[in-house]
Write a structure and sequence with these properties.
Elements: E1 2-6, E2 10-11, E3 17-24, E4 33-39, E5 46-52, E6 57-59, E7 67-72, E8 77-82, E9 91-98, E10 106-107, E11 111-115
Parallel strand pairs: 2-11
Antiparallel strand pairs: 1-3, 3-8, 4-5, 4-9, 5-6, 7-8, 9-10, 9-11
């Protein structure tokens, strides 16, 4: 299974960040959990949330109020939206999947998102 992140590399403060993960070699509706993780510059990895093969979702408590994960099963994609972004949301964003909530067996290559006016 391969994952590829896509989306704008630059987002203005207060706007919505939207990224898509395209999955190939496997279906997002089979028995896995599909996550978004980010790494701000100079900081560690942060799990943001995930969508399960069933369509149910789970989010990090610190981001839950601003984050939404959805999917398009016809395109085998899942999407991250983060509302009201600030420069603190600048990070490399990764999509990944694993056998349970917050587990990661395989990752995309990551995409840099910078929040700046």
């Amino acid at each position: 299974v391969q994952l590829q992140e896509s989306g704008p590399g630059l987002v203005k403060p207060s706007q919505t960040l939207s990224l898509t993960c395209t999955v190939s070699g496997g279906s997002i509706t089979t028995n896995f959990y599909w996550s978004w993780i980010r790494q701000p510059p100079g900081k560690g990895l942060e799990w943001m949330g995930a969508i399960a093969y069933s369509g149910s979702t789970s989010y990090s408590p610190s981001l839950k109020s601003r984050t939404s994960i959805s999917r398009d099963t016809s395109k085998n994609q899942f999407t991250l939206q983060v509302n009201s972004v600030s420069p603190e949301d600048t990070a490399v964003y990764y999509c990944a999947f694993g056998g349970g909530w917050g587990t990661f067996g395989s990752w995309g290559q990551g995409t840099q998102v910078t929040v700046s006016s």
